[in-house]
Amino acid sequence: MQVTSPADMGPQPAAHAREAVLDDATLVARARDGDVRAFEVLVCRYQGPMYRLALRMLSSRGDAEDVVQEVFLTAWRRLGQLRENAAVVGWLYRTTTNRCLNIIRARRPVTDADLDSRESVDAAGSPERAAQVGEQLIALAAALKRLTPEQRACWLLREVHGRSYGEIAVVMGTTQAAVRGRIARARAQLAEVMAPWK
Q1: How far is CA 156 from the centre of its chain?
Q2: 195 located within any domain
Q3: Is the pLDDT of residue 12 over 60?
Q4: Could you tell me which residues come within 8 angstroms of residue 167 by beta carbon, excluding any fewer than 6 positions away?
Q5: CB-side neighbour CA atoms (13 Å) of 121
């Protein structure tokens, strides 16, 4: 089984149409029974969000692709260990976040900003607006790198991926109060850095 890059994903094949409407718990149960197609639907459903999370945490397309590949291969191998079939999304977020945190802690600080700004630039319209959006993205990426890895993960999970404080606490292995504190500190730092863009 191969996890494709989110950029390589095209329209879903017709064979996946029926599985695509099934809920996560049903897909996990089928995948546990050896249904590779059901697992592929889960991969198609969640590799995009996991890739975007990893990319924003690591600022490296290659590292993000590697993390997503590892996460889904691990998920395939460990489906039998998942206690609740519906818990697969939280498990994917937790595993992706932990792998990213491990990579951040292992590497030396980097200063370059590797942003995937094509989507925003294309949507921006005029060249002047595109340049401004590009500068904002570079400033935001630099500001995110100044956060602690834990603050960055909490902020991304909340602000970009819309996870609840309770879900983030489970992903991070901490309390909701700690999550709220990390997000508040991250928001304060980011607001200070991004103030010129308001």
Answers
A1: 8
A2: no
A3: no
A4: 90, 93, 157
A5: 10
Residue 129 domain-assigned (yes or no): no
* Nearest to 130, CA basis, from 115, 142, 117, 113: 117
Supply 1's token pair.
């089984």
CATH number, domain with residue 72: 1.10.1740.10
Q: How many domains does the chain have?
A: 1
Domain residues for the domain of 24 are 1-107
Residues in the chain: 198
40 occurs within a structural domain: yes
pTM (predicted TM-score): 0.64
pLDDT digits (tens, 9 = 90+) for 44-71: 999 999 999 999 999 899 999 999 999 9
Positive or negative, the CA dihedral 107, 95, 66, 190 is negative
Residue range 110-167, pLDDT digits in tens: 444 444 444 444 444 567 767 767 777 787 888 888 889 999 999 999 988 889 999 9
CA torsion sign for 60, 61, 62, 68 is positive
pLDDT for position 20: 59
Task: Tell me how many degrees the CA angle 55-59-62 measures, rounded to the nearest 5.
Answer: 70
- 43 falls within a domain: yes
Residue 86 tokens read as 């519906």
Tokens of 143: 């500001």
What gap in Å lies between CA 191 and CA 146, rounded to an integer? 13
Please say whether the beta carbons of 51 and 68 come within 8 A: yes
